[in-house]
Amino acid sequence: MAAHTSQSVAKAAGDDVENNDAAARGRSRLADGRNTGTGNKNGARGGLRRALATHWYAWTMIAPVVLVLGVIIGWPLVRGVYLSLTDANERNVARTIGVRHIDATYRFVGLDNYTAVLGDPVFLQRLVWTVVWTVACVSITFTIGLALANMLNRDFRGRAGYRMALILPWAVPGFVSVFAWRFLFNRDNGILNKVLDGGGISAIPWLDDPTWAKFSVIAVNVWLGVPFMMVALLGGLQSIPGELYEAAEMDGATPWQRFRHITLPGLRSVSMTVILLSTIWTFNMFPVIFLLTRGGPGDSTEILVTQAFREAFITSPRDFATSATWGVLILALLMIFALVYRRSLRKQGEVW
User: Fold this and answer.
1) How much is the average pLDDT of 205-210?
2) SS3 for the chain, per residue?
3) Residue 2 has pLDDT above 50, yes or no
4) How many CB atoms lie within 10 A of CB 312?
5) Radius of gyration in angstroms for the set of CA atoms belonging to the chain, rounded to a whole number
6) d(Cα 92, Cα 89) in Å, to the nearest integer?
7) N or C end: fewer C-beta atoms under 10 angstroms in the chain?
8) How far is CA 275 from CA 134, 149, 226, 259, 327, in A?
9) What integer pLDDT is reported at residue 128 of this predicted model?
10) Mean per-residue pLDDT of the chain
11) Cα separation of 43 and 33, whole Å?
12) Which tens digit of pLDDT belongs to each residue from 145-188?
């Protein structure tokens, strides 16, 4: 009986302790709830301290890169946005002539430059041709790159040699390739017209006719872009399990069905990435247009970036404000495209 009584007393004492602990935890939660603002701030600071303490080595490693990117990209971007809101040109910016320093006299004009550029028919012309140029280059490059990647994904004699030959245009500096193509396209002494002349075909004005000039710049840019597309897609093809093709072949699937239902879905993530990168690069592909045609004949091959360059370095007086406005508009267009593209990928179930 005594033992039973002592056990009851101990159990009751234990229940009281548990109840007291629960009440204390409730009061603590209530106090935390009353001080939510302070708690969140302290928690944020504590989380930041813990992150810095835990990952200090990673932060130390990336700090120089962040600093360099801030200097190389961040400062010019901020400066460009500022100049786009002024009327700066080579006559009113600060400059030094000999020992005499002339202070800047340009002034803030707000959004006047954007209104002027967007209201100018030249902007719409450049934008339309830039979009056509980008879509044509990316679509043709992707198609050829996918075809070559499928060919090189098979076992055949000399495959390594073919891979090296197809990657070669990517290894040659861009300006060297463009100058080589400029020599090929020469109307009087170019190799292409010499070959046509040997076949009894009259010379083609590759760089002297607006239509042929557009065809020429697209061809050169495709030639430069195919190696990257091919290598990226070839890596994606090699990541697709071969068992899927074997099972589909055993089920009687035709080559087109295997390509449509296995290859294309397997390349979706790689394709979306390379298409986005190729679009951004092509949209801003200054060297091909400038070195091959300088925007000509006339202004038929001018794209947005070459027009911005023309405003800043070719027109007289050089209009830095208008050039910066073109640059900011180009950045805005690419950001809008990237956001729309990302949203469409998320709707398709792709995480990016």
Assistant:
1) 92
2) CHHHHHHHHHHHHHHHHHHHHHHHHHHHHHHHHHCHHHHHHHHHHHHHHHHHHHCHHHHHHHHHHHHHHHHHHHHHHHHHHHHCCECCCCCCCCEEECCEEECCCCCECCCHHHHHHHCCHHHHHHHHHHHHHHHHHHHHHHHHHHHHHHHHCCCCCCHHHHHHHHHHHHHCCHHHHHHHHHHHCCCCCCHHHHHHHHCCCCCCCCCCCHHHHHHHHHHHHHHHHHHHHHHHHHHHHHCCCHHHHHHHHHCCCCHHHHHHHHHHHHCHHHHHHHHHHHHHHHHCCHHHHHHHCCCCCCCCCCCHHHHHHHHHHCCCCCCHHHHHHHHHHHHHHHHHHHHHHHHHHHHCCCCC
3) no
4) 20
5) 32
6) 6
7) N
8) 11, 15, 12, 19, 22
9) 96
10) 83
11) 13
12) 999 999 888 877 877 787 788 887 788 888 888 999 999 998 88
Res 200: pLDDT: 85
pLDDT at 343: 85
Give the C-alpha separation, 308 to 328, whole Å: 10
pTM, 2 dp: 0.79
Q: Read off the tokens for 100.
A: 């005499």
Average pLDDT over residues 295-310: 92
> What pLDDT is attached to residue 95?
82
